[in-house]
Amino acid sequence: MKPCRVEFPGTDKSPVDLESGANLSEKLTIHNSPILFGCRIGICGTCAVEVVATDGPLPERTFDEAQFLEAMAPGQDSVRLACQIRINTNMKIRKTQV
């Protein structure tokens, strides 16, 4: 599979190429990303990111992610939890608060 590039606009962090199909938070941790992670199961919100751009659609939100974001970031479709995303496209993300 072709790797997917993840970029961090507004930071000095270089883009990283990550394995398609992998969990975003697991791979970003390995690359010392500027995104913080707490629980890693979609209930704390420390890994909330704004998806600024992609080359294609992201996977649908998981049930846990949808429940959390409906309560904490209603109507903000560009906000996702990095711990819940499976990498499937190039993307630009930035840390956000929920």
Structural description of this entry:
The protein has 98 residues and is of the alpha+beta class. It has a single domain (4-95), classed as Beta-grasp domain (Ubiquitin-like (UB roll)). The chain contains 2 helices and 5 strands; from the N terminus they run ββαβαββ. 26% of the residues are buried. The mean pLDDT is 91.
The rounded distance between the terminal residues' Cα atoms is 33 Å
CATH topology group: Ubiquitin-like (UB roll)
Name of the CATH architecture: Roll
Mean pLDDT: 91
- DSSP, total strands: 5
Strand order in the largest sheet? 2-1-5-3-4
Could you state the CATH homologous superfamily? Beta-grasp domain
| Count of domains | 1
Shape: globular
Beta-strand content estimate: 15-25%
Biggest pleated sheet: 5 strands, mixed
Low-confidence stretches: none
* Contiguous helical run count: 2
Order of helices and strands: EEHEHEE
Helix % is 10-25%
Return the CATH class: Alpha Beta
Radius of gyration: 12 Å
Structural class, from helix and strand content? alpha+beta
Gist of the model:
The protein is an alpha+beta fold.
Please give the structural blueprint:
Layout: E1 4-7, E2 16-18, H1 24-30, E3 48-54, H2 63-72, E4 79-81, E5 91-95
Parallel strand pairs: 1-5
Antiparallel strand pairs: 1-2, 3-4, 3-5
List keywords for this structure.
98 residues, 22% strand, globular, 5 strands, alpha+beta, Ubiquitin-like (UB roll), five-stranded mixed sheet
